[in-house]
Design brief:
The protein is α+β, with helices and mostly antiparallel strands. Helices cover about 50% and strands about 25% of the residues. The chain has a five-stranded antiparallel β-sheet, covered by helices on one side.
Amino acid sequence: MKPLPNEIILRPRFQLDMVETKENLLKKFETAGYDPFLVNRLDEHVFIKFNAKNNHFWSPQLHLEIDEIDSNKCRVYGIFGPNPTLWTFFMFVHFVIATLFIILGIWAYSSASLQKPYSLQLALMSIIVIMWFVLYFFGRSGKRKGKPQMHEQYSFMMKVLNS
């Protein structure tokens, strides 16, 4: 696994070059599921998740994409991330907050241009900035809680690849 460039990354990525055919690797993953992992394959994509018993709010999912380089080599691209539904909701909340920030900025600018009070808008914009920081640290906390499971998934993946 390549070292990550910094600690800010919320969805760590890696790539591995394998001396094996793409189909052999995909077949290995199809037959490799065992407790506590659920392995799903869709074309060249493999998803490794935790079963319901071991799954919690911050449980990660490992998404692998296996691309063929030549007849006996392939490259495995991996990305760790939260449940896609959770990730979509998280991004939606960020989008709503950013939109509110822009609207309040326009309202504050208009009020200032008309020489009307705009302290309310600035106060609300400050609250939104604080909410961004809270969301950021909430995401970092979730990553920290899911990190042991990320290591389990990575170990499981390496065990399957090397079998």
